[in-house]
Amino acid sequence: MTEEVKSVASDAGKLAAFIERIERLEEEKKELGADIREIFAEAKGAGYDVKVMRQVLRLRKMTPADRAEAEYLRDEYKKLLGIAE
Amino acid sequence: MTEEVKSVASDAGKLAAFIERIERLEEEKKELGADIREIFAEAKGAGYDVKVMRQVLRLRKMTPADRAEAEYLRDEYKKLLGIAE
Amino acid sequence: MTEEVKSVASDAGKLAAFIERIERLEEEKKELGADIREIFAEAKGAGYDVKVMRQVLRLRKMTPADRAEAEYLRDEYKKLLGIAE
Amino acid sequence: MTEEVKSVASDAGKLAAFIERIERLEEEKKELGADIREIFAEAKGAGYDVKVMRQVLRLRKMTPADRAEAEYLRDEYKKLLGIAE
DNA sequence: CTGCCATTTTACCGGC
DNA sequence: GCCGGTAAAATGGCAG
């Protein structure tokens, strides 16, 4: 007596609801992205270097172990290629 | 003759404030991403195909964009023809 | 149980070789960019409007892409309809 | 007796020639890009970390002064934000 | 010098 | 769990 096999056209409204909820959330996400860009612009106006800020943000996201690993690799590659410290 | 404008040692708190505001917003963005994934999971549980849903979302996004594109192309051609003859 | 697979201290020459091949190709790319700019300059000297030329180039690139796009959209819709009914 | 005011439809062939030369060069540029991506893939297959390779390439492009400046700024920001060395 | 556009780069997500 | 491709973001370059 399986009545629920695969949702099809019958509950189109349900699918539409899912889609719309997702679209709403994506819209909010987009706005947050805009807010973030605004803050970077503001920081730039205050004399900070946006690129470096992004690097730092990346570092703060990493665990200490990841950070160590990343720095280790970069240093090794630099050594192998003869880039001065 | 100060050419050095980049903010550095001064305003430790200001930089930190910018960074923290950004991190807060990124956190919210991340949460929205999680919410969206949840809805997909829910829809999947209701028998919908996630891949198809993503296609629908993409199409809904693209279709208006495409219309704008087509209009843009027409405009460009008109401009070019206006110049050439 | 070596879990460390990332190449590091070994093969200094190998890494350097990869890097140098890439740098060589990037160099060539850059030169092509310069050649292109030169042609624009030449065309400008011959009385053509660079901006318009760029539009023409863009249109010539986009028009086929757009056709592909339209076909793609049709396919997607067909697929979706095929599933829904 | 200015005969050369603005090139127009009359020398359409000339414009076409410029356009085609440019398109040819752009095509070559694109191929070089593909070649580069291929090398990265090869390096990856050999166990190298592509992301780090890109960092190193960037470093190699910088002058020592730029490099020092970038590292100085990054370190300062890290200090200000309390990121451990 | 600023804004725009193209390219590159990063992050995400489903599939294997 | 990793890899691949795909979409968004960011960076760099150019014309104005």
Q: Would you write up a description of this structure?
A:
- Four copies of one chain form a homotetramer.
- The first copy, chain A, is mainly α and 85 residues long.
- Chain A has two domains: 1-48; 49-85.
- Chain A has helices at residues 12-45, 50-61, 64-80.
- Chain A starts with 11 loop residues before the first helix and ends in a 5-residue tail after the last helix.
- The model of chain A has no long low-confidence stretch (mean pLDDT 86).
- Chains in contact: A-B, A-C, A-D, B-C, B-D, C-D.
- At the A-B interface, helix 1 and helix 2 of A face helix 1 and helix 2 of B.
- Chain B binds a DNA duplex (16 and 16 nucleotides) through residues 33, 37, 50-51, 54, 58.
List keywords for this structure.
2 domains; mainly alpha; elongated; 85 residues; homotetramer
Describe the structure in brief.
4 copies of one chain form a homotetramer. Chain A is mainly alpha-helical and 85 residues long.
Q: What is the ordering of alpha helices and beta strands of chain A?
A: HHH
Q: Of all protein chain pairs, which has the greatest interface, and how many residues does each chain bring to it?
A: A-B, 31 and 30 residues
Radius of gyration of chain A: 24 Å
State the oligomer: homotetramer
Count of individual domains of chain A: 2
Helical content of chain A stands at: over 70%
The main pleated sheet of chain A reads as:
none
**DSSP E strands of chain A, number:** 0
- Count of alpha and pi helical runs of chain A: 3
Q: Any low-confidence stretches of chain A, pLDDT <50, length ≥5? A: none
* Overall average residue pLDDT of chain A: 86
The end-to-end distance of chain A, rounded to whole angstroms, is: 72 Å
